[in-house]
Design goal:
Layout lengths: L6 E5 L2 E8 L3 E6 L13 H6 L2 E6 L16 H14 L5 E6 L2 H11 L4 E7 L9 H13 L4 H11 L4 H10 L16 E4 L13
Parallel strand pairs: 3-4, 3-5, 5-6, 6-7
Antiparallel strand pairs: 1-2, 2-4
């Protein structure tokens, strides 16, 4: 399968693991909570056949990329992504933020717009309501009994490799929506994608 080779690149903050496949216009996925490039493996061949270069890094604390034991916040992820893009000498790319990864992509769009040709936010997290983590937890529970077992297996495969402290710490540090007050600063094309039955996202926030 294309993209099955795990690569590594040295950043100022340490070595980072990633997978990439294809040639042409670059698309960079910023994974959701606790996920690595393995979660997106079924997409690799599709992107390659479309003439795109798909790049999926392992964020700090996941899949062999070192990170704080208690998790990372959106600012740290955005800084990591900027270092990652520089290390790979990536041209302007489409950055896809999946779930919690959308917050780092929003920050990247305001801080390093020269890196981005556009952004896509897939099921972005954040909430305008009180107790956002409780709301997300209920949504995750509902999703777990509705989605295909293969999805559950793919998620579990990555989650079992992340310590509970890192997982919970990262989740808690992403509880506040970073888009508040920053949207007018984003000047690149943006696409929002949400599932019709997604129980995790806050539709009022989106």
């Amino acid at each position: 399968m294309a993209g099955d080779v795990l690569r590594r690149v040295m950043l100022p903050s340490g070595e980072a693991a990633y997978r990439e496949v294809g040639d042409g216009f670059p698309v960079v996925i910023v994974p959701g909570l606790g996920l690595t490039s393995r979660f997106y493996e079924n997409s690799y061949n599709t992107f390659a056949r479309a003439g795109l270069r798909l790049v999926v890094p392992h964020l700090p604390g996941t899949g062999g990329t070192p990170g704080p034991r208690t998790g990372v916040d959106p600012d740290a992820v955005a800084e990591f992504m900027a270092e990652f893009a520089a290390a790979l000498k990536l041209p302007r790319a489409l950055y896809v933020g999946h779930s919690l990864g959308a917050q780092a992509v929003l920050l990247l769009a305001t801080r390093a717009p020269s890196l981005l040709a556009g952004i896509a936010l897939v099921g972005p997290t954040g909430s305008v309501h009180a107790r956002p983590l409780l709301r997300q937890a209920k949504g995750l529970l509902a999703e777990s009994v509705r989605v295909h077992p293969a999805i559950i297996g793919a998620v579990a495969r990555d989650y079992l490799r992340v310590s509970p402290a890192r997982y919970l710490g990262t989740w808690i540090r992403h509880r506040d929506p970073v888009a508040e007050g920053r949207l007018p600063e984003i000047e690149v094309p943006a696409l929002l994608l949400i599932g019709g039955r997604d129980g995790v996202i806050d539709r009022d926030y989106v």
